[in-house]
Amino acid sequence: MIGKARSLFFSILAAGLYSGLGAPAGAEILTLYSDKGVPPGASVLAFSNPNTTPAFFQGDNTDLAAPEGLQAFKTQGVSWAGWGVIYNSGVNLTKFNAAGGGVLRFWLYSNSSDLTLSLEHTTPGLDCQGVNQIRGKDCWDFKGSQLGSNLNKWNLVQIPMFFEEPPGSGIFVPVRMDDLFSPFELTSNTGATFYVDDVRYVDNVLYTNSPDPTSAPIVFNATVKNISDQQVTSNLTWSGIKLPTGWARADQYIEVQVDPNAPGWGIQIYSDNTAPDANPQFVSATPSGQPR
Q1: Are 193 and 110 in contact (CB under 8 A)?
Q2: How far apart are alpha carbons 108 and 219 in whole angstroms?
Q3: CA 111, CA 78: separation in Å to the nearest integer?
Q4: Which of 63, 165, 53 is nearest to 110 (CA)?
Q5: How far lies 271's CA from each of 57, 249, 274, 287, in Å?
């Protein structure tokens, strides 16, 4: 039933307390909000109580050191307020529900735990208060969660895309995700200031014998893509090159996707083109680019 407000398992991990479990795994990552903004075809919808002072929204805020990149999305209001990523024509994200091992992950920094996360459908149903609307919602209530003891710090929120039906039965039913108007909406139900960073769905990461998202391995994907059309390819090519030549850019690039479940991560790339006998040899004026 679309829009039924139910309690379900989710985890909140304080920044710096978790370093990831398991070995790297291949998975698809759909990033809904980052320093790059939102995906093509999507937009941001902000909303607040119209009967009070308008809330403040800033998608490129730098008040805090962000867990990913340099910016976070800030919301500040004296009453209920929130924002979401929307697709006006709807979007099918079934591949990210729990049947595909899917998890919603994002970083949250808040001075209140009275928050509600919701997925909004394109079809009628109940909202988070149980009222029939032209677009139904599925809802997660943060009140009473671990967030209450982790206020005013960055927390990694992980929510498997299933409901336990009926509650306490141990039977987990994937969330319906084939008709989403908004795959992510976060609302403070009272006056609050909260920041959100790196909102993403990741599939193929839940272990089949555990609904616990903290049991999921980290994700590391490396894909070769054409610069011209962004299509995946298996080869590196150089067009229009006349030998001998100096440094020349390839027609492809290597896209790296990482979802490590921890802040402060990094990627080291090794090459032998700084070796004394490399021809041509790469010389960097930046210490981090120099051989050790």
Answers
A1: yes
A2: 20
A3: 13
A4: 63
A5: 43, 16, 7, 15
Residue 37 tokens, joined:
């903004």
Reported as a single tens digit per residue, the pLDDT across 36-76 is: 899 999 999 999 999 999 999 999 999 999 988 899 999 99
Side-chain-side CA neighbours of 194 within 13 Å: the count stands at 30
Rounded Cα distance, 72 and 62, in Å: 7
Query: In which residue are the tokens 């710096």 written?
Result: 16
Q: How far, rounded to the nearest angstrom, does the alpha carbon of residue 56 sit from its chain's CA centroid?
A: 22
- Out of 77-81, 109-113, 221-225, 233-237, pick the least confident: 221-225
Mean pLDDT for all residues in the chain:
82
CA gap 226, 232 in Å, rounded: 6
CA-derived radius of gyration, the chain: 22
Nearest of 31, 29, 18, 55 to residue 146 by alpha carbon: 18
* Helix/strand/coil percent split, the chain, to 5: 5, 40, 55
Q: Which two tokens stand for residue 53?
A: 């002072």
- At 214-229, the pLDDT tens digits run 555 667 778 899 999 8
Percent of the chain with pLDDT strictly greater than 90: 45
Residue 144 in this model has a pLDDT that exceeds 60 = yes
Output the six-digit token pair for 282.
């790469």
Token output for 26: 């291949």
Burial class (CB within 10 angstroms; exposed 0-12, middle 13-18, buried 19+) of 236: exposed
